[in-house]
Amino acid sequence: MEQRKLGRSGLTVSRLGLGLAALGRPGYVNVGHGADLAGRTAVADLEGRSHAVLDAALRAGILYLDAARSYGRAEAFLASWLSARGIGRAELTIGTKWGYAYTANWQVRADEHEIKNHGLATLRRQWAETRATLGDRVDLLQVHSATLASGILDDASVHDELARLRSDGEVRAIGLSLSGAAQAETLRRAMAIGSDDRPLFDVVQATWNALEPSIGSALDDAHASGMGVIVKEALANGRLVRGVEADRIAEQARRLATTPDAVALAYVMERPWSDVVLSGAISVEQLRDNVAALELHLDDEARHALNAMAVPVERYWRERAALAWN
After folding, report:
1. What is the predicted pLDDT for the residue at 110?
2. How many CB atoms are closer than 10 A to CB 109?
């Protein structure tokens, strides 16, 4: 698999990465998540599933793995896999995120699945939890779903602490993930944080897909400035392959003799600013379909069909917010 440097972070990453959001907990907002798990939601079941998918990712050449404190036991599953397989420090690049706490207590139907807080106390507490689980294996520490409203972009105490973690060598790079209709504005604000010596954020992780391409020009500018770009939700939480929006992609997949997953991912990979595109696969079979995107070259007919799928940004995020857990 193609490897590249993740912007000014200097981290080595693969063209396709693996996100652990759907593997670390029994409830998630991906369309069909409950059916995929088929009732096998015990901790041991999901740990075994995570290890199997991680094994397949390693065989495929995936070098970037993405977790978060709020992904249930994702960090713990990753840690047990690294230990069981004896994978060395330099063999993979690992990112995680702070700012959300997992609160569902391993229940699929919970009043709250996660709680957001971007304060300094949360950063220090969650970073300590991550270190206790993953030790020194984290290369990239990201703010989880930074928004204009969360206050993270104005909190100098948090900025100073993140910069210290990087300068002291506890992590190699600092990033932020984005969510919501104001992704582009949030990113442009974040790019201005730091000093002339070094911007605070080395990497951005954002949602971009055929339905929601609104942040594209901002990601292009961020990449040109030296930021690494990670794309999440390239399948729109499964809506592009299983939801009502899937028909046009399925038609192109049939015509190109491939899978809808591969078509949707290849469309994102064509963006010159996308360094890593995350797979959210929850099975070895899904990962195999995702990896097929690396060999797929879309033609003009496919590009035209996907270009026509974009919806108004407010509508996209309203519909995403309405997705049921499982």
Report:
1. 86
2. 11
d(CA 247, CA 75): 35
Other C-beta atoms within 10 Å of 124: how many?
14
Question: Look-up: residue for tokens 């996660």?
Answer: 114
- Cβ contact 312:258 at 8 Å: no
Q: Each residue of 304-323: pLDDT tens digit?
A: 999 999 999 999 999 999 99
Asked if 305 and 45 count as a contact pair (C-beta separation under 8 A), the reply is no
Max CA-CA distance within the chain?
54
CA distance 55 to 53: 5
Summarised one tens digit per residue, pLDDT across range 208-248 is: 999 999 999 999 999 999 999 999 999 999 999 987 788 99
For each of the domains in the chain, give its residue range(s) and CATH number, in order of start. 3-321 (3.20.20.100)
- Asked if residues 139 and 173 have their Cβ atoms less than 8 Å apart, the reply is yes
Q: In which band, very low, low, confident or very high, does the pLDDT at 119 lie, cut at 50, 70 and 90?
A: very high
